[in-house]
Design goal:
single chain; OB fold (Dihydrolipoamide Acetyltransferase, E2P); Helicase, Ruva Protein, domain 3; 5-stranded mixed barrel; 5 strands; 22% strand; elongated
């Protein structure tokens, strides 16, 4: 199994790159957002991609396919996406056109409108992604998006405390969950429903 590749950038297409690694030139499929970023790099640049390798079955022929990601987190997220029924590797890769944390949040809060806006994601696939992955993607929601909290702020209600516990169950660290709930409270939002607090925090 090929899990990482490093080489010189030869060509960048809309959905692929060519990498020269020693005496071999590899075609690596990439997400549209990755292709856009790599297109800004000069030809000959050395790059490294985290890879996913599989066999594409087409009638009586099997074709090896190599997909590349800029980070381990992107690849891990992709591998979660393809757990959804009838959402193949190519469709999942093409759908990765928005920031990872935004994609993860949409699934966590059941935002099918955002999901349906992604390339190759229809209404049924959006519902399948939520049904299969909701509650499993908290680790991909970036802490850097959380607002800073004023010094001395404290959790003031049972609902906030329960919301923090739920956020931790979704994979958010205890520190980040507390910071997020306190930031929401400090913003002046008056929410008393646990589920609503969690949804608002994940949308931020």
């Amino acid at each position: 199994m090929i899990r990482r590749i490093r080489g010189q950038l030869v060509e960048v297409g809309a959905e692929h790159v060519l990498l020269q690694a020693e005496h071999l030139c590899y075609e690596v499929l990439v997400a549209p957002s990755t292709a856009e970023r790599l297109a800004e790099r000069p030809v000959g640049s050395e790059i490294e991609l985290h890879t996913f390798h599989y066999l594409y079955q087409e009638q009586a022929r099997s074709t090896p396919v190599l997909m590349g990601f800029e980070t381990d987190a992107q690849r891990d997220f992709f591998e979660q996406l393809i757990e959804a029924p009838r959402f193949g590797p190519r469709s999942a890769l093409r759908s990765m056109t928005i920031p990872l944390s935004t994609y993860a949040k949409a699934i966590e809060i059941g935002d099918t409108k955002t999901l349906k806006s992604l390339q190759g994601v229809g209404a049924n696939t959006a519902k399948a992604l939520v049904a299969q992955l909701q509650g499993k993607l908290g680790q991909f929601i970036g802490a850097e998006e959380l607002e800073p909290v004023a010094a001395g702020a404290t959790v003031e209600s049972d609902a906030e405390a329960q919301a923090i516990e739920i956020l931790q169950q979704l994979g958010v660290s205890e520190h980040e969950a507390i910071q997020a709930v306190l930031a929401l409270h400090a913003s002046g939002a008056e929410l008393t429903d646990v589920e609503e607090i969690v949804k608002v925090v994940l949308k931020r």
